[in-house]
Amino acid sequence: MEQVVAFVLELDRLKAVTRKVKPLGQDRYENSAEHSWHLAMLALAMAPYAEPGTDMDRVIRMLLVHDIGEIETGDTLFFIEAGRHERKAAEEQAVARILGLLPHGQGEALLDLWREFEAGQSREARFAQALDRAAPVLLNLANNGQSWRENEVRYEQVVGRVGPPIAAGCPALWNHIAGRLDAARDAGWFGMG
Amino acid sequence: MEQVVAFVLELDRLKAVTRKVKPLGQDRYENSAEHSWHLAMLALAMAPYAEPGTDMDRVIRMLLVHDIGEIETGDTLFFIEAGRHERKAAEEQAVARILGLLPHGQGEALLDLWREFEAGQSREARFAQALDRAAPVLLNLANNGQSWRENEVRYEQVVGRVGPPIAAGCPALWNHIAGRLDAARDAGWFGMG
Fold it and tell me: CA B135, CA A91: separation in Å to the nearest integer?
């Protein structure tokens, strides 16, 4: 029980990892813990648009655990390509360490889920990745492109990097987003590069 | 799809609802969104201590949804008895309104889960309630009793109000906590009333 409590207190640190988008109406950056909750709720809400047969409980568990490595590595803007491989390796090490705090090999199933999410091959991982890519887009579309402006993210980067995974994992969501991205570009919400 | 997105953006507001405890090492109050994530992870970690047969996926969904009514009502210190019935009625109305944003009656299953959690009768609800009561205690025990001190919460209030639900829903966790609460009292971490 002491090990379980130590694990849970270690997870508490994810509340201090800040991302690049701001919650609507707030003058602070979103953290990865509340983002993970929001994604799990997004999965529940978007379930009718998942490929038939998708196990939504596995999707939710994946999303709950997908960012815990950031306790050590922090969050990196999705559009930064340089060093991605090294960052992911460091993140996997962190995830393995943190889940290793749980007794009796209890963390192994969660580590497998984390790896499955990262691989993005299974039906559940594709759906979960689509939601993870879409969430900051939905916030930006409701927030005048706040993090795109602040980080000089270009329209082509968003369409090129988040379009394919969203379209692959949740086509209906990409249909919804694609047209709105065009309108956001016309409104000048993106960086010019 | 537009209704689903509107629902998800409405949920974003839970990130602005502050609670009484602070994440460890941070000089700000926890919000109810990151708290909900933390509880879902606590459920995964504490699963071996649940009553056999507990459906952990239902527990997780319950915990994800249990605080969304606070978007309208805010969070109230658990030890405030006055007006509890009225607050819960207002919270249920808020939950019904928010889940009603989802199309095709999709929110009804989540509303049922919210009510099941509040009723605290099922195996899953008892376990989920135990974790919800225990989480701020675990943070306070790691944080010199921060929210107990700030809100003049007495030892007897904590033992009397959170002890029974934790003991009922997760006896092993209460065994762990009870002794530590005695040590916290001896250390002077509680209000004197």
Answer: 26
What residues contact A104, with CB distance under 8 A and at least 6 apart?
B48
Residues of chain B with pLDDT > 70: what percent? 99
Closest C-alpha to B61, from B99, B12, B21, B10: B99
Average pLDDT over residues B174-193: 93
Return the domain boundaries, chain B: 2-186
Q: Which long-range contacts (CB under 8 A, 24 or more apart) does A72-77 make?
A: A72/A97, A72/A98, A74/A17, A75/A17, A75/A18, A75/A19, A75/A20, A75/A32, A77/A20, A77/A151, A77/A153
Chain A CB contacts of B142 below 8 Å:
9
Average pLDDT, integer, range A164-177: 98
Residues of A in contact with B41 (CB under 8 A): 8, 11, 64-65
Judge whether B153 and B189 are in contact, CB under 8 Å.
no
Q: Enter the CATH code of domain A2-186.
A: 1.10.3210.10
Answer whether B114's CB lies under 8 Å from B122's CB: no
Gyration radius of chain B over CA positions: 17
Q: Looking at chain B, which residue has its C-alpha nearest residue A171?
A: B1
Q: What is the 3-state secondary structure (H, E, C) of A147-182?
A: HHHHCCCCHHHHHHHHHHHHHHHCHHHHHHHHHHHH
Residue A170: closest C-alpha in chain B: B1
- Token output for B1: 């799809």
- The per-residue pLDDT of chain A, averaged, comes to 96
Contact A24 B5 (CB under 8 A): no
A69-112 pLDDT, tens digit per residue, is: 999 999 888 888 888 899 999 999 999 999 999 999 999 999 99
pTM for the full predicted model: 0.96
